[in-house]
């Protein structure tokens, strides 16, 4: 059985777009589902694929950061049951509930309210469960085509066709994943807990506060609105340059400081191409600041340009200017 595998190689080197679509269709609509794992892990993979290196490798820590955040917010913040039987909770649910109880975490706390130490500890616990039950299972769901993995080395190497496909159709795939996850949760949770369920699922990865990024950029010397260049005062907004609706990741190199007017008017749109060039120049300057290097992991200008194009292709409106 695939979920028991410790190491596995991709079974194909050449895959067509049609074959990927066929496999995804089977994954979403015909696969067996006892827990929400496959949807949660695929959602985390969509988020983490931005961290892939030049060899298309993604670390388990990157994937399970997103995976743990997703499950914490589903289980603790929203109180949602994660398996298809009321007598046996999923292993991840048990791990998270036990951790919350041992650390006296108040009910309905969002993941971002945990301390950094608590996050690291919990991610390691959830990762061990995921290594046992999730990584090999998803590999099997995709007929051994999607990635190579090694549980000991703790990395996935995505097939280049799948990596490009996930990035190209990220918005569509995220929406379908959210929908299927919501359908599962709706079946196995009490009525009062499934109110506005699709909205809850859509926003389980959103950060509660972006203040930390605001402070980092201010420490780096940013004092003016990225878009209109007016001096920023007390009411400063942190804007996802590539909108959150496509790029559901909180990474410093995609954040800019903006005045409230520009941030509100830009909303869920892409800024005009000249602002992309300005952001690339800004990020190059940040790379020279030792204090910020750890916050710019996995960044390069080509990746940012590619994401900008992918966002346009996913229907994010472009050309916005103040």
Automatic annotation (TrEMBL):
It comes from Solibacillus faecavium. InterPro entries: HNH, HNH_nuc. Residues 211-264 form the HNH nuclease domain. Keywords: Endonuclease, Hydrolase, Nuclease. This is HNH endonuclease. GO terms for molecular function: endonuclease activity.
């Amino acid at each position: 059985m695939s979920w028991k595998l410790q190491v596995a190689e991709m079974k194909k080197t050449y895959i067509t777009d049609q074959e990927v679509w066929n496999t995804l269709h089977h994954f979403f609509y015909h696969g067996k589902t006892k827990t929400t794992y496959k949807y949660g892990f695929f959602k985390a993979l969509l988020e983490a694929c931005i961290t892939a290196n030049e060899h298309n490798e993604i670390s388990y820590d990157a994937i399970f950061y997103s995976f743990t955040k997703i499950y914490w917010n589903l289980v603790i913040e929203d109180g949602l049951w994660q398996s298809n039987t009321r007598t046996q909770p999923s292993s991840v649910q048990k791990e998270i509930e036990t951790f919350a109880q041992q650390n006296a975490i108040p009910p309905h706390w969002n993941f971002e309210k945990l301390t950094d130490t608590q996050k690291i500890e919990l991610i390691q616990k959830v990762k061990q469960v995921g290594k046992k039950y999730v990584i090999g299972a998803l590999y099997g769901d995709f007929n051994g085509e999607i990635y190579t993995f090694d549980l000991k080395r703790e990395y996935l190497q995505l097939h280049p066709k799948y990596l490009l496909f996930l990035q190209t159709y990220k918005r569509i795939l995220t929406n379908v994943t959210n929908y299927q996850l919501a359908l599962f949760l709706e079946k196995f949770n009490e009525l009062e807990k499934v109110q506005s369920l699709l909205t809850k699922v859509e926003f389980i990865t959103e950060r509660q506060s972006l203040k930390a990024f605001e402070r980092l950029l201010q420490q780096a010397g940013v004092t003016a609105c990225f878009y209109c260049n007016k001096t920023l005062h007390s009411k400063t907004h942190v804007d996802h340059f590539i909108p959150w609706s496509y790029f559901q990741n909180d990474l410093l190199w995609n954040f800019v400081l903006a005045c409230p007017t520009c941030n509100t008017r830009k909303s869920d749109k892409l800024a005009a191409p000249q602002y992309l060039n300005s952001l690339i120049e800004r990020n190059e300057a940040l790379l020279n600041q030792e204090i910020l290097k750890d916050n710019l992991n996995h960044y390069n200008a080509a990746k940012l340009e590619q994401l900008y194009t992918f966002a346009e292709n996913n229907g994010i409106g472009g050309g916005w200017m103040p």
